[in-house]
Amino acid sequence: MSLSTKSAQAFALGWRVLLALVGGFAIANLAAIAISQLPGDNKVDSIVAGMMWGFVVYTLVVLSVFAVRTALRATLLVSTLTALLYGLIHLLSVSEAV
Amino acid sequence: MKARFRQSMGWLHTWSGVVFAWLLYFIFVTGSLGYFENEIDRWMKPEIVTSNGISDKQAIDLAMVQLGEHADDASQWYVSLPTSRDPYIEISWLQPGDPEKQVRRQWYEKPLEPNTGDITSIRDTSGGETLYRLHYNLHYVPPLVGYILTSLAGMLMLIGLVTGVIIHRKIFAEFFTFRSAKGLRSWLDIHNVFSVLPLPFHLMITYSGVMLLMGVTMSKVIDSQYGEGRQMHRQFYDASQLEEYTTLVTEILPAGLNVDTALSDAKQRVTDQAISFVGVIDRGTDTEHIEIWFETSEGVEFASLLKYHARAERVEVEIATGKAGQAAAVYDLLEHLHEGLFADIYLRWVYFLCGLFGAAMIASGMIIWLKKQTMKEATPPLLISLIVRLNRGVLVGLPIAVGCYFLSNRLLPVDMSGRAAWEMHVLFAALVLCCLYCLINRSQKQWLTLLWGAALVYFVIPLANMLTTHHGVINSLLNADWLMFGFDLCMWLFAACFGLAAAVVSRQYTGSDVAKKEPLVC
């Protein structure tokens, strides 16, 4: 194995670790905020539920980031999830305002 | 990542475990000790006079006199009645802060002497509480840093558990496999036993652990709905902890409401549970009321609570029926499962042992990883050999440090200033010394020295107790003081366990084929 492929692999691994830790945390928080905004009569309880699901989401994201075959797919996964959740939160807050 | 899914998960399992292994080991050991917080506390305060046989009424009368004398300006009073776990009367009050007199707002807790009713003066000690709080505040760092570090370690633990389940196809078959004296294979089997059997406990304790700190780690979610800042968050906490109550009207007239009348009314309503403590809340205000708490070992609920309010016509009693929200109720359940306050003495031991299994799981996982690293090359790289040494220092050094903490409680001068803080310093100094010993000393027999050291420390604790107090094993046995006796007995049990471990490890240093044998531990 040449030195350059080795350092490329190391970079890809470090990138995955970053994606898992930071991306996973961001997605966990976004998911929690989205859940807390779901329509329901007990607002406070939805926040509690959201935060509790957050750790499950975090775990699943970390697992997925390391399970997919390439670092590129992991990047796509994290960015897609982030975008989707952003969209969902936006939709929910719009429907709430109406 | 790796070519196969299971290999990727194996990599993740290894690294999520190794990165915070020592911190997780520390959390599991000190957290397990927390299940015996009250018992440890009682042992560390030997001056406390037990009050078996005193009636609730007598105890409360004594307590009210002392509270009136020492805490007349306090807004909250509590009296803890003798129970099987805490067989003594204790009063506590919230001292209001007074900047002029430089009095800090804080809780005071004082045990009472049951015969005279006076406050018993006890040695200044960190007790069981500071020891159990170590597992999430890490003592020397600011609380916020402690919470974040332990949460991070907890998240990695959760990932380690889930990936651990994924990589073991035949998880239950492997549980019944044990290949002894086969080096790495044996360690893998040991790791499986400690992980699989208490897996439900490990998952519950880890998930609920990170959940309990979610207000800190996921505060952005609260920010998004309530706004930033302590006051905004306080609104959220108050709202989320809202309880639902059933309100009943009692026979008591508003003027006749006091601790005695509330107590006798509560006893008529709940006949099958002992009362653990009573409180007078919001003293001297319009919302002044009396709380009666029942014993905690009667179900997963933390405790049943009755609140007595004086209303216009009659006194009304509020009975809590649980949290208003569903998620909050699940949170409550998990919190109670984590803390195990409801557990009686037998279940408490199961909790304690499961916690130690968790520590053993982490320790054996670390040993497996280090064995694999050192087997790769004849002379492992410097970093690996340093980790190997430090690993010994942490794994055995921590139990030694806890033992030294108990010893310091008996051996430090009773009138020493800052004594309680020094007990904690002793704990951490012992841990650091064990690590330093492993780093400096080049002997191959570090495991042996440390294990014999631990055996010695735990053997000496009951002796130090016997020499410095009147609560030695013989006296405890004669007085049927089972808490003190049990504590000393446990210390000797731990000493025996460490001695046994030392004897097993020492076998690898004896015999003619020492050089050929694969070392038992690394």
Automatic annotation (TrEMBL), chain A:
Protein keywords: Membrane, Transmembrane, Transmembrane helix
Regions crossing the membrane: 12-35, 47-68, 75-93
UniProt protein name: Iron transporter
